[in-house]
């Protein structure tokens, strides 16, 4: 709870800084400091034992001045209103950074999907859509997968909305199975986006990706795909970790073998004896460090010991604001989460565009379009950071919030 509150308030602090730097007044901050709409719903679900259990769900819509709001729905026991608020604001920033015609949205249900049957999950997913169908829709607010939700859950949600709407509405949600209008490349989009950003950052620091020494914290969806892409591109992944420990080999780990052995929760280190801790992993001598696990991993306690030349945040919120300052003062290039992990929402946008057109692109076309957006976004943020002499996080927030602020001003909302 405190952590979520911190996430919310620390996001507000950087948004305030960004709006101040852009020259907006207090009225604009007052508008953008929290979602314009925050809905809490109670969802009754018939469980397999015949009893009804009532779940609590949320949907936050940060600002829809630019266009419909967009963002994932997570199923997790720790979901809270403050977390949803903060994450909806982050989605506005991501959409602004990669220049999508969206505002930010986010949703969640307090539940533990690991303890639910497929039937219970289907009824819960459909119940969420029924509870929120009036405020969501292809031109209002478009959900997507997030923590512990997947293409199957998106399919149930799309089907439920289509029944309510009495139209087949693939554009209601993204991250769907390909046969229901999902986009090629959506499942690997976040890691591909991070890979593109790493390549651009490496060029700025004169690091050749062939043989570059990479350390990745987290071997789940984001971390494992990423390690594969970087390994295949000729980089040397010398460290990886999961919740139970870390593996280190200065000569480079056998990534294909590790991918083959990891379980569906991203665990692999338990199979080995010579492990090191996550704390040691973060401080390894390397060229590029990628936190791709959980929040608050680089703090004022260990920021002085980080040896990487570049830190790219694939996880949400892995670096505290104190640590951001320390790393920046030490000359380490820190690429923030809102930029690095924007590949997912970018390809979600492409999925929605394809649904609206009823015409579908090949994987190569999707990759080419995403690469263009991510490369442009990196350079925009890097240039603002260099010319204004500010860290890349503040630069990313300035670019991310500007479009929404301008659209709100034109509409007369601030
Ligand atoms: P995941 O659950 O698939 O994997 C998480 C990994 O982190 C696992 O290897 C797990 O063992 C490890 N881990 C968990 N607790 C840990 C701890 N205390 N110390 C070290 N490692 C720990 O999650 P994911 O989808 O890969 O997401 C990882 C991060 O990337 C999250 O912050 C997420 O919000 C962010 N992200 C993911 C996506 C995506 O498309 N998957 C998109 C945007 C952002």
From TrEMBL:
Pfam families: ELFV_dehydrog, ELFV_dehydrog_N. Keywords: NAD, Nucleotide-binding, Oxidoreductase. SMART domains: ELFV_dehydrog (SM00839). The active site is at residue 106. Substrate binds at residues 70, 94, 348. GO terms for molecular function: glutamate dehydrogenase (NAD+) activity; nucleotide binding. InterPro entries: Aminoacid_DH-like_N_sf, Glu/Leu/Phe/Val/Trp_DH, Glu/Leu/Phe/Val/Trp_DH_C, Glu/Leu/Phe/Val/Trp_DH_dimer, Glu/Leu/Phe/Val_DH_AS, Glu_DH, NAD(P)-bd_dom_sf, NAD_bind_Glu_DH. GO terms for biological process: L-glutamate catabolic process. This is Glutamate dehydrogenase. It comes from Sporosarcina thermotolerans.
